[in-house]
Specification:
six-stranded mixed sheet, binds magnesium ion, binds molybdate ion, Molybdenum Cofactor Biosythetic Enzyme, Chain A, 30% strand, alpha/beta, Molybdopterin biosynthesis moeA protein, domain 3, binds ligand LQZAQKY5, Molybdopterin biosynthesis moea protein, domain 2
């Protein structure tokens, strides 16, 4: 008889063994989607010189003090600067430099007037700019440090690099980017009934879908999957695969063979390894048979063979462990509240994690089961972008009830399981 423990207790037992992985460097081109291994601080002010935000004229504001439509001022245009050129030397109050967006403000100038507000005038072979309004000192200047100041923290360690982070990295010259190594996750699918994906169906056999599903889940969480293929339901084959995986991977995930059937060898494998069992029954549906053990300081996750139970077990237990290895403080699934779209009246003493579809409608989050809700179901995984959490022991949930939902396709995460 197995004694179920609460989901939060199971997660805690696993996370006690979590640790931070190693760092490596990748080129900025390869950094997208990786977890940063260091805090990123501004190494210079940005912009690091005063710049013009417009195409126009750089001027001394005081020269326009009395400018108006009836008394325009004329300033001599002594040169032009584009993004590539810099104006050497100061300008005098009666002068202006034509300036393009992004170019450095010449010494002596303290404002920019947009080209649309001016007129060019040629007089005695010289070019002047005519200005019909007063321009304030500092007007239209992107100041040094306006965007980012040297030393300020911009991106925290553990952050998954998005296009915006890439822009910041490039701004500060990070050609090589410190990222966390992707944790290596071994995936072992147990089951003599399993066929390769390319094999034709035979009576009593099914294709090994869990290995591919898990591979994608590992990738989504930021890990590097190593698929050990399918393993026959014998003690020897299972033991051999697990011990091999323990040598090559940081995390070992098995699917199937974890229940109480005659051919469920995972419990025996844990025993033979002398592993410390963390749990072998969790008060949840699906995935109540989910097990975890530690051998040689390596955490072994024994996920259910039933596809939906396997999927949920990965997201609840393996994902936070993997995220912690990536140096992420927010390693847990983010929880939001949503309105239940339809009645869910099935009762169960265990907490249910229903594969669900979360949507945003009329300014509100709504959630509905993504399909059939049995643990051997594959189809409901297609639409699942979240897990609807329904606490056990209730008499069911009516449409319109506010419920908790865990986000599966979110990078932000949460600092704790709650
Ligand atoms: N007497 C009891 N029987 C069962 C219990 C129980 O408490 N007492 N628990 C049930 C629950 S709940 C689940 S979930 C399953 C878990 O079984 P296992 O984790 O041991 O998995 P298997 O027996 O190996 O397979 C279960 C099911 O899943 C299919 N499967 C397995 N691997 C794959 C794969 N890689 N891809 C696709 N499908 C896979 C397999 O063919 C079976 O149909 O036990 C219940 N029984
Ligand atoms: O608890 Mo089993 O693991 O899904 O139905
Ligand atoms: Mg079984």
């Amino acid at each position: 008889m197995r004694k179920p423990i609460k989901v939060e207790e199971a997660i805690e037992r696993v996370m006690k063994w979590s640790y931070e992985g190693e760092k490596e460097y990748v080129s900025i081109e390869e950094s997208f989607g990786r977890a940063l291994a260091e805090d990123i601080k501004a190494t210079t002010d940005v912009p690091w010189f005063d710049r013009s935000p417009y195409d126009g004229y750089a001027i001394c504001a005081a020269a326009t003090e009395n400018a108006s439509a009836s008394t325009p001022v004329l300033l001599e245009v002594v040169g032009t600067v584009g993004a590539e050129t810099v104006w050497e030397g100061p300008i005098e109050p009666h002068q202006a430099v034509k300036i393009m967006t992004g170019a450095a403000i010449p010494d002596g100038a303290n404002a920019v007037i947009m080209v649309e507000l001016t007129q060019e005038v040629i007089k005695d072979g010289k070019t002047f700019v005519q200005i019909k309004r007063r321009v304030a000192e500092g007007e239209n200047i992107s100041r040094i440090g306006e965007d980012m100041q040297e030393g300020c923290l911009l991106v925290e360690k553990g952050t998954v690099i998005n296009p915006g982070v890439v822009a910041v990295l490039a701004t500060f010259g990070y050609y090589r980017v410190p990222v966390m190594k992707r944790p290596k996750v071994a995936i072992i699918a147990t089951g003599s009934e399993l066929l390769e994906v390319y094999e034709p169906l035979e009576k009593g056999k099914i294709r090994n879908s869990n290995a591919y599903m898990l591979k994608a889940q590992v990738r989504r969480a930021g890990g590097e999957p190593i698929v050990y293929g399918k393993v026959k339901d014998t003690f020897e084959a299972t033991f051999e695969a697990v011990t091999k995986a323990m040598q090559e991977a940081d995390i070992v995930v098995t699917t199937g063979g974890v229940s109480v059937g005659d051919f469920d060898y995972i419990p025996n494998v844990y025993e033979k390894l002398g592993a410390q069992l963390l749990f072998n029954k969790v008060g949840m549906r699906p995935g109540s048979v989910t097990s975890a053990a530690v051998a040689d300081k390596k955490v072994l996750f024994g996920l259910s063979g039933n596809p939906s139970a396997c999927y949920v077990g990965f997201e609840l237990f393996v994902r936070p462990f993997l995220k912690a290895m990536l140096g992420q403080k927010n390693c847990y699934l983010k929880k939001v509240q949503a309105i239940l779209k339809e009645d869910f009246l099935k009762t169960n003493p265990f907490t249910r994690f229903v594969r669900a579809k979360l949507s945003y409608n009329d300014g509100m989050l709504h959630v509905e089961p993504a399909g059939k809700d049995k643990s051997n179901i594959v189809s409901s995984l297609v639409q699942a972008n979240s897990l609807l959490v329904l606490p056990g022991g209730s008499r069911g949930f009516k449409a319109g009830t506010k419920v908790d939902v865990l986000l599966l396709e979110d990078e932000e995460g949460a600092p704790k399981w709650s």
